[in-house]
Amino acid sequence: MEEQPEEEAMPHTVTLKQRKEYAGDVLFAEFSRPADYAFTAGQWCFLALPDRGIADERGLRRHLSITSAPEEDHLGFATKISDSAFKQTLARIEIGEEIRVEAPKGRLHLPADTDRPVCFLAGGIGITPFRSLAVHSTRSSTGHRITLLYSSRTPEEAVFLDEFQALGGENARFRFVATMTRMQQSQRSWAGREGRMDSQVIREEFPEWERGAFYVAGPPNMVGTMLELLAELAVPEERITVEKFMGY
């Protein structure tokens, strides 16, 4: 998610509605959504937090993917917890407190061609924009055929796991496949795939891979790994859309 130089609209003020932690290291925050705040599924925006006495050189303004869909009445964000001033402040904001959100940015949107099957490749926190895209495709019946391949260490750490599984039952054109890499550390049963994501998993779970469009999002290391898998499959660059989460 790289900042683009452009004229900025005035930021909006929103209030925290709820907050949740996943497996102790992912923070989900839901804010009110102004009636005039329009965005496209898969976009991101800058958040500016109030000063709560925690400071570092990066400050209290950071960009995060919007996890909510345009059809929903809130703005959702999820991020890995760290010692940064921004994330420690976000974890301390109380319900009802205000922050500022800026205009949406980013190009991770569904293709205009609904005939081409789409594969989302995500690992860990890289799942965040795909929640927006999956919910949007379901709520608005866009007609896209989507396969979401998601790698997580354990089911407890898989953000939105239950919701994605439910979407798979609600939307016949959306398929969700998760693989767990450290089930020995889990207290939850799992009947799905285990092991790391590799090119064979892509071939098996996305049989349209030879003509499909691929979307990859997440921290640079994760994105690099996924791009290596697509290179093994000789997927041309024009069928790959990438969004890197910088600053983690």
Short note summarizing the structure:
The protein is of the alpha/beta class.
- How many helix segments? 5
Broad shape:
globular
Which CATH architecture of the largest domain? Answer: 3-Layer(aba) Sandwich
**Domain tally:** 2
Total number of strands: 12
- Major sheet strand order: 4-3-6-1-2-5
CATH topology of the largest domain: Rossmann fold
CATH class identity of the largest domain? Alpha Beta
Estimated structural class: alpha/beta
Helix content: 10-25%
CATH superfamily (homologous) name of the largest domain: Nucleotide-binding domain of ferredoxin-NADP reductase (FNR) module
- Sheet with the most strands? 6 strands, antiparallel
- Rg from C-alpha positions? 18 Å
Mean pLDDT, to the nearest integer, reads 92
Order of helices and strands: EEEEEHEEHEHEEHEHE
Distance between the termini: 11 Å
Give a topology summary.
Elements: E1 12-22, E2 26-32, E3 44-48, E4 61-65, E5 74-80, H1 85-90, E6 98-101, E7 118-123, H2 128-139, E8 146-152, H3 161-170, E9 174-180, E10 193-194, H4 199-205, E11 213-218, H5 220-232, E12 240-244
Parallel strand pairs: 7-8, 7-11, 8-9, 9-10, 11-12
Antiparallel strand pairs: 1-2, 1-6, 2-5, 3-4, 3-6
